[in-house]
Write a structure and sequence with these properties.
homodimer; 2 domains; two-stranded antiparallel sheet; 6 helices; 65% helix; 6% strand; elongated; DNA-binding; WH_DNA-bd_sf (chains A, B)
Chain lengths: 127, 127
DNA sequence: CTGTTTGTACGAATATCTTCGTAAACGAAT
DNA sequence: ATTCGTTTACGAAGATATTCGTACAAACAG
């Protein structure tokens, strides 16, 4: 079993931005981060340096302004976080999580259709 | 907006047990906890005392052996954790979370049926 | 070249979480 | 009453996360 990726709250916020934008400078990340929460520039910098030490991001330091990129796979991270959550908070029942998620995060009919399709495919494959 | 419930990892594990068992003593919780992870008794005790300070649990201290009970609603907590996760890690798309959850946490056909039913009901109500 | 801006590095203060040792209180058994 | 096992209270150490000030380097403007 691979060691689980366990980013902290703050690290996750940065990862999310990196996943969305692709390779970015500290300043770019910082500016987006600032919209969501109060933060000093060096704070963001330090966080990203730590993430680099931990291997959560890679960086290109060839130019003066370094460019950071997510080093952990988005889907893999999502999956790990979800599984942990299912285990602890939903006593192992994924469907309970699914219903809870759908119940309170108003989804469009299109999204619901997509999920329905997905369900059908899953059932086919299971045979 | 109510202040979000933000239990730590360890606190969540304890809450999960309390939700499952209902009111319990420290020893009862500790014994279950021990099956999942290494932990000293006083460690569990301290955690639950802190949770009491934070208002995550209530306790009946009338007898020598105190009895603890979850003070935060299970569904509400689940919802808040999920919403946060959807926002940060799934860029706001609940359906993406749903598919990710279903895809990797093999669910039984019964569970899938339950979800399908749930989807239908949701769509009806939305009209 | 000199001063200003923009960036990284580093270290330290602070906060929060986790763990556990030790002591005191209590009840039950001898 | 003394002892023994169980429980709570308290405090502190260790680990991890968060925040930011300061120093130094590079690029840039004049």
């Amino acid at each position: 079993m691979n060691k689980p990726i366990k980013p902290t709250e703050s690290e996750l916020e940065i990862l999310a931005i990196l996943w969305e934008r692709g390779p970015s400078t500290v300043r770019e990340i910082h500016e987006i981060l600032e919209r969501q929460k109060e933060a000093g520039y060096t704070t963001t910098l330090k966080l990203m340096q730590i993430m680099h030490e931990k291997g959560l991001v890679t960086r290109d330091a060839s130019a003066k302004t370094h460019i950071y990129e997510a080093a952990v796979d988005r889907e893999l991270t999502q999956r790990q976080l979800l599984n942990k959550m299912i285990d602890t908070v939903f006593k192992g029942s994924a469907s309970q999580l699914v219903m809870q998620a759908l119940g309170h995060h108003r989804s469009s009919p299109e999204e619901l259709d997509m999920i329905r399709q997905y369900l059908n495919e899953m059932e086919k494959k299971q045979k």
